[in-house]
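Supplementary Text 2. Reproducibility record for the structural model of the 170-residue chain.

All settings were left at their defaults, and a single model was retained for analysis rather than an ensemble. We include the record here because the model underlies the residue-level annotations in Supplementary Table 4.
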Amino acid sequence: MQMRESTARENAEAAVMIESGRSMADVAAHFGISVDGLNQRGRRDPAFGAVLMTVKRPRRVRTSELEAQLIDLWFQPETYTVPQIAATLGVTRQTVHRWANDLDLPHVRLKQRVRTEDRSARPPKPVNRQKVIASLARQLRISEEGASRLVAGAAPSAFAAPAPTGVPQP
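Retained model, structure tokens:
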């Protein structure tokens, strides 16, 4: 794919800016694009991509203060989800999980908030009786009438096929 002349010039200018120490965010803002847009340009233009490969991505250094904050937030699953912890600490979800693993924090965390309400106090959901009967009939391979009697509490012998005439019943 042939690049436009202006884009090649912009890439060269962006490369000079990056090599002089400007951040990816600053360079992207200068050209009115996102950092992801710069990375896409780097995939299309090998020379610019080589410059991007030299950029050291900033990493948040894990301090004892951040560890204490993570531990405090980690044990409040009803209040904080992992994405919320990540936003609070200023890191990604993956970093939160990596730090939690390094600190041997328990892996069993709910992906969603813990329910604080007593679910047993809720009224039961209404059951669609006809759907239950139809499903039961399919599973047991009996008629819907037989399934209806089974749901109503009829004895299982009521579903047996009628005995042939002339054969004594036990």
